[in-house]
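S.,

Sequence below, as promised.
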Amino acid sequence: MRYYRLLDGTGRAHLAAETSDGTLSSLTGLNSDATDFIELVRASKMTGMSVDAIASNILSSGTPETFSLSDLIDSSKNWTGIGRLLRPVDPDELWAGGPGNYVFPDEVLANMPPEGRAIYDGERPPMMYKGGPSRLVGPYDSVAIRPDATQTIPEGELVLVIFKGEIVAYSTGNEMAAGVPGHIVPSKVFTGCASLGPCVVTPETLPDPTNLQMELTITRNGNVVGSSTNKTVHRRSPEAIADWGFRHDTPPDVALIYTGGCVADGDHPVQVGDVVRIEMEGVGYVENAVAQA
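The prediction came back faster than expected:
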């Protein structure tokens, strides 16, 4: 199933599942303990039932309150109407995978500098810390650029939702990379450096996330100034990426790993006021205006 978090018109928070195309059914309205996707994960670990089976049991216990996904997206983007989609999970940590995860074409590899090729060919994929939950915004909130950045590149990525070191869901998001004078690698940690959503999808619903269509579009003053399309093809499996991420560490309860820039447009760095849309097959899209951190 696909799981969403939302505020209804009264400001009440709901965990909801997409029970039919475009219709979200509230789990919270039927069971007051079902307020967060991670709570379903904890229940799954204790009972041995899958997350989707637990959600199905809750939904079968009564008639759930329903919401229109398209209406919620519209009101979230425009701050009008009732209701709003929130980021689907609140992680303890954010991590960004590097170029060792993504498959580069032969012509790119041929022109890659030695230090870059060493990273690409290394056994361990590079992994960069992106901060805690305060840096993460929802699917239709504003991402940011640092005022001292020479350029900021939005990157659309497959996102792994990790619970105690294990993948429990997938999502997509925008992982912002800011070039800062005097720094060899881009800055990854600043307010609004990543977005997430609109939902998380369980492995039962999305058993293979490694060959999905992704699209990125950058709009400026109503005109498209940059775009990129690609498949979510990785050199390492999601499980291997998650394993390397915490192999020599104690994982937090909940972490997000942005697996590497699948779609990006380095020729068109974003500016304040731009709108970046990133869509991933099977998940949906995030659409974030760009503000200054």
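The domain at 93-292 is CATH 3.90.850.10 (Fumarylacetoacetate hydrolase; domain 2).

Coffee later?
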